Amino acid sequence: SSGINAEYGDGGIFEFRSYRLKAGCLYEWGNSWAHAINLRKADAVMGMCSQVGQMYTVHHIWRYRDLEHRRAERNRAWESGQWADCVVRTVPLIKALDVNITHATEWSPLR
Q1: Full-model pTM
Q2: Looking only at Cα atoms, what is the longest distance across the chain?
Q3: Helix, strand, coil in percent for the chain, rounding step 5
């Protein structure tokens, strides 16, 4: 396996979170997440937004060994207090949220 981290064996699972934000708040969103991401760097694969297509949409991709690992890491982040601060600041900016959990394909470099 040539994956990013051998800890994940067959690639683990990936959580894709897509946030559709209210117009004009992408900068505020980014500033809040710039601090909070430090709490979960080990799980973060990618965070991105686009200025083309569906405007004011942010995508986060998180990687976990399995659903139990996902639960444990999310709970650990909440215990810090900093995560809750980020959520309190960013939830009012969200118009819609989509969450999907999947596996890497056989040919994915993330396996």
Answers
A1: 0.83
A2: 42
A3: 40, 30, 30
